[in-house]
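pinging the channel bc i need a second pair of eyes. not urgent but kinda urgent?? the chain im working w is below, pasted from the shared doc
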Amino acid sequence: MSAGYLIFCLNRLRMNVRSFAEDARGNFAMMTGILLVPIVGISGLALDHWAVSTAKSEIENAADAAALAIINRAAAIMRESGNQKLASEIGRNAGNDQFDANVGKIPDTKIEARKTTLSITGLVLESKIVWSAQSTTRFSSLFNWKRQSLEGVSSASVQLPAYVQIHVVVDNSGSMGIGATQAAQDELFKLNQCAIACHLNGTDKYNKARAAGIKTRIDVVRDVLVKVGEKSMESVSVPNQIKIGVYTFSNDFVQMVKITDQESTNMNKFKEKMGKDFGLTGVGGGTDYHGAFRELLKVLPKSGDGLTEGTPIVYIMFITDGIEHTQQNKGGGWWVADADALRKDGSPIVVAPSPPLTGLSATYAYRGQTRSDMGWIQPLDPRICTPIKQQGQLSTLEIEYIIPEDKYWIHNGTADVRFGWVKDKILAKEGAYTLSHNRFRKCASSPEDAHLASSDKEIEAAIGAMFAKVIPKPPRLLK
């Protein structure tokens, strides 16, 4: 081959290569052919990823629904019977059935394992379902990726509505009949020539004050109890969940609203009953803590777990102005001291009165009567609260004992020196209520459950706080 021919061939080749490079015809088809395989492969992987993600989401939804089914069914059993073992078994079975039914509809997916549990702690139920699965791929198997492992955990918890009984024990003795404000005391004196213990001059004295719109401390307590009672019932989520009993005491003990009455749950009837019957005592004197607590124990149930109406959580609220007079009404217009009455009739003693509790040298003998007639005038003895606290949660409200102006200490036209005794012999020694309130802190289930109030607004705030602490929260899904 000659050199010239060789050069010719090379030039020709160079021209053909240049021509091919400059010719754009058929490039798209060629590039498509080259890229088709990876495009199809990536699309297949994307479809498989979407299918696996969808399967996992559907399994998670099924597990969430199953976790809720467990606690819903278990909660129903707990409310019916309180049987935790039965509730756990039936609840878990309900969850398993629902989970299996839902995941059985998911294509190309096999559940390898699932485990359901239910824990019950007090009123809180918590369910958990742990699962694992395999999702089969379609296109990815071309790349030797035939299955995708999946796993997850779903849980739910709920707090059941607690059944509660609230037993409110209110001192309605004469000292609670003082005007709630200084202005009310002045008005009361103008109306009745009396500002405290006016009932001793006849029951019409208190009724006249109410008719005139003069608000005494016992009226403040009544109005607040109606208000917070109505507010409390807004939290009711199951019938008879909250029951409110009200008791009054002075020298006797009256079940004003029995815990078994319709009034304990029906606030219209409660309001009517309180408005008609709740007020200052019209019978003699006395503020017998010992007798009141002894009678309360006869009707006070033992606090339960709150799961059923028959096992309620029991709360007791003790409201008084902090001075005891251990005197009982035994009928027939005569009164006896609590301790002596117990010895005579043989009834059980909670803690017998054992004054002098504050170093007093002698009891106060009213109008020359003997101790067995009149009993002791003394501060609260916190020992008597122990049996009550063994039955339920006890909170106290000490309403500061007010000694009005001297001219207001009137009883049958004569200054009632009992109030001077309280002022000079008890309150002075108690140290402006510091020591007195410590007695109530010891009486209550915890120091935080002991409240102190004086004005009508403070009384309302204290009773509101007492109820706010014990009213059950509505059932709710915790997670």
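so The chain has 14 helices and 16 strands. and The radius of gyration is 40 Å. — does that match what u expected or am i reading it wrong
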